Amino acid sequence: MTGWAIWCGLALGIYVVGLSYFARIESRAGVLRYWPLLLLGAPVLLAQIMNANGSREAALLLSAIVGLWSVKSLRYGLWSAERNIGRTVCGLLAGIVFVDWLAVGPDAPRELSFVLIALFLAALGLQRFVPAT
């Protein structure tokens, strides 16, 4: 086991803690605090630190994907007239696949990218079968 795996696992764990905050708000009415948004950015920050060599371009591209997907998901719970925290949580859960993709690193085979995209699409597709809350 390398330090890369430990740091990436830690970044994913921090992302899940931020996501869990929104899931908790969904089940209980409460005040929405914005500090957990910082936790969702941990994988992006770590990717920029760890990919300081020639892999920075790939890390920037995947970081943009993670960031854009997170903002799109957060839009339903933060910036819409009628808050839909459930939809935010579903989007952030599907985004875990993008965080995993960012953690895999630049040396992964290209085929793994196709597998991760398929898993992301499967996560979105399977969420359609979950009853609305």
The oligomeric state is single chain
> Helices and strands: which structural class?
mainly alpha
Regions with pLDDT < 50 over 5+ consecutive residues?
A: none
The overall pLDDT, averaged over residues, is 86
Indicate the overall shape: globular
What does the main sheet amount to? Answer: none
Instruction: Please report the number of helical segments.
Output: 7
The H/E string reads HHHHHHH
According to DSSP, the number of beta strands is: 0
Q: How far is the N terminus from the C terminus?
A: 41 Å
Cα radius of gyration in angstroms:
15 Å
Estimated helix fraction:
over 70%
Strand content: under 5%
Supply the number of structural domains. 1
Quickly list its features:
globular; 133 residues; mainly alpha; single chain
Q: Could you characterize the architecture of this molecule?
A:
This protein is an all-alpha fold. The protein is 74% helix and 0% strand. The protein is built from 7 helices and no strands.
Question: Summary?
Answer:
With 133 residues, the chain is mainly α. It has seven helices and no strands. Helices cover 74% and strands 0% of the residues.
What is the topology?
Blueprint: H1 3-27, H2 36-40, H3 42-50, H4 56-78, H5 85-94, H6 96-104, H7 110-127
Helix pairs in contact: 1-3, 1-5, 1-6, 3-4, 4-5, 4-6, 5-7, 6-7
